Amino acid sequence: MLRVGLTGGIGSGKSTVLQLLAGMGAATVDADAISRGVTAPGGSAIAAISERFGAHFITPEGSLDRDRMRAHAYADPSARQQLEAIIHPLVGADSARQVQAALAAGKRCLVFDIPLLVESGRWRSQVDQVLVVDCLPQTQVSRVMARSALPREQVEAIIAAQAPRALRLAAADIVIANEGLTLAQLEAEVSLLARGFGL
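Below the sequence we write its predicted structure tokens.
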């Protein structure tokens, strides 16, 4: 089974590419979705987060208070590492279960959606190819502002906290330049790739 690591900056169109590949028959493992699941109400990370950071980091509904944690992590960079030390092993275990399910189902291609593929270092050895969805930083900003109604400064801060674009491109085996493409054109690009992936 071919293992592809998919990454790209916020607003690059990475999630759309993942959906297209899934629609073309790839098995997918979405690390972000798993991470959201373990920090949702009843999620497997909640007790440890409450114990480590305090109950005030858990919302009344029982999920991680993301806004409070984000503010705390900006003020105290070690908080992010402490949170990741709780969440990453849980995400890893769930990812491994999904990989086994894809193997058992006889899937020919498995796509890992890994926002921090370049930053984490540990992922590169676990995939056969790295696929980067890329666009210009100003395109990222305008897309995220349009979809999330976030102010420009906040979007720029998120982009600045991610791996630099040049570093992502240097790590890529394949690049989809998602700049000025219509959805149909993007789908055509992904379709060509999918054939190369044996889909």
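The longest helix spans residues 77-104.
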